[in-house]
Automatic annotation (TrEMBL):
<dbReference type="Pfam" id="PF19420">
    <property type="entry name" value="DDAH_eukar"/>
</dbReference>
<dbReference type="GO" id="GO:0016740">
    <property type="term" value="F:transferase activity"/>
</dbReference>
<keyword id="KW-0808">Transferase</keyword>
<protein>
    <submittedName>
        <fullName>Amidinotransferase</fullName>
    </submittedName>
</protein>
<dbReference type="InterPro" id="IPR014541">
    <property type="entry name" value="Amdntrnsf_FN0238"/>
</dbReference>
Length: 319
């Protein structure tokens, strides 16, 4: 029996997808608040009792600062405003769509009903107009069947090795995962991860970050030793430097990062919370390969996501 559950026997034979998106999409919320519909299984969510209006103002400025900082490093950022009051998690657009080399877009079914309102036709139309889009595969209708796959939150994609790493959860249905991987040419690797209180990790992208030359991963949260060993071995076989993170560092969003393309090369975007959680040795290991862009987003993080969740990467070719 396989230690890591592979849902496809066919091995990918192409390595032509760059890991780094050429641009990112950011949603700036005007009425930010924590989402009560996602609180049950998102252990990272901790909004507390701050006044709603105060949180909204802080979040707006945190996202604005993120946009300005990324642009100052030469990152191409497409900004969309969300002035609605019924999409509390719209600041995390990577969950409802993803883009892929060759001109492919996927649209995903979301577990929380109010998150389904985040899908925006104007973003898809912009992508079609500004980038070469061959097809849009829309899985959102699977919500009617109770099947969910929350994009690059549920899946951490190795675009080079063509592997989709996935923590088992209600937000990553195995049937839909197999369908996605078959259509988009990824090999699914599925495992279980829990915190010390026995709560399942709700999204894979809080557990691990895959960049071109490094991987940061909270492997200790795979409580099954055999699964942990197999996962680490699989990651090491990619030739990347592996930086293991503790559960405390994962709780500080140190696994929720994204490599982005700047004016002078690639960068690793992470939150201020995440950077503070890393040891000096870990920071040195990262900076030997990638400059760090440090983004303070403490209010956004109270909603249960961090920098990687905020950045929907574009892996399409420009027109």
């Amino acid at each position: 029996m396989s230690l890591l559950i592979s849902l496809s026997a066919q091995q990918p034979d192409v390595k032509n997808s760059p890991q780094i998106p050429i641009a990112v999409i950011v949603i700036r919320p005007h009425h930010f608040t924590a989402n009560p519909e996602t609180a049950e299984d998102n252990a990272f969510q901790n909004m507390g009792v701050n006044a709603e209006q105060e949180c909204a103002i802080r979040a707006y400025h945190e996202v604005s600062n993120t946009i300005d900082t990324l642009r100052s490093h030469g990152v191409n950022v497409h900004v969309y405003e969300d002035e609605g009051r019924h999409t509390p998690d719209s600041v995390f657009p990577n969950n409802w769509f993803s883009t892929h080399a060759g001109g492919h877009i996927a649209i995903y079914p979301m577990y929380a009903e109010n998150r389904r309102r985040e899908r925006r036709t104007d973003i898809i139309e912009m992508l079609k107009h500004s980038y070469r889009v061959q097809d849009v595969v829309d899985y959102s209708g699977m919500e009617n069947d109770g099947l969910f796959l929350e994009g690059t939150g549920a899946m951490v994609l190795d675009h080079i090795e063509r592997v989709a790493y996935v923590c088992k959860s209600r937000r990553a249905d195995p049937i839909l995962l197999e369908r996605f991987c078959s259509q988009f040419n990824y090999e699914p690797i599925v495992f279980e991860a829990f915190d010390s209180k026995g709560r399942a990790v709700y999204h894979t992208n809080v557990l691990m970050c895959i960049a071109s030359d490094i991987v940061l991963v909270g492997a200790e949260m795979l409580r099954d030793i055999d699964q942990r060993t197999a996962l680490l071995e699989r990651l090491k076989n990619t030739g990347r430097k592996i930086i293991e993170l503790s559960e405390a560092q994962i709780a500080a969003f140190a696994g929720n990062m994204l490599e982005v393309q700047g004016a002078n090369g690639s960068l690793l975007a992470m939150s201020e919370t995440a950077r503070r959680a890393l040891t000096c040795e870990q920071i040195d290991q990262v900076e030997q390969r990638l400059p760090i862009v440090n983004l303070p987003i403490p209010t956004i993080e109270k909603a249960g996501g961090s920098v990687r969740c905020m950045l929907a990467g574009i892996h399409l070719s420009k027109r």
